[in-house]
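User: Some background: our group keeps a shared notebook of sequences we're curious about, and every so often someone picks one and asks for a predicted structure to add to the entry. Today it's my turn. The entry only has the sequence so far, pasted here. Could you supply the structure so I can complete it?
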Amino acid sequence: MVTCEQVLQELSNFIDRDVDPALRAEIEAHLVRCRRCSVLYDSLRKMLVIVADERTFEIPAGYSERLHAFIDRHL
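Assistant: Of course. Here's the predicted structure to add to the notebook entry:
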């Protein structure tokens, strides 16, 4: 069973589908059980979609501070 720390270390590879099938299954199971990691995964995935989009988006005022505060509180 993987821990939150292990999921965070492998999250980028997981998104890129660059982990072995056994580890992928463990991370998927962890994301179902762990709300904190699931929220972080969803946020990272959405951010990557936005970054891949060539349009320019303005981030709402205070978003970065709220995101960092959320991460600090929950990890």
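Suggested note for the entry: Helices lie at 4-15, 21-33, 35-52, 63-74. Residues 34 and 75 are 11 Å apart (CA to CA).
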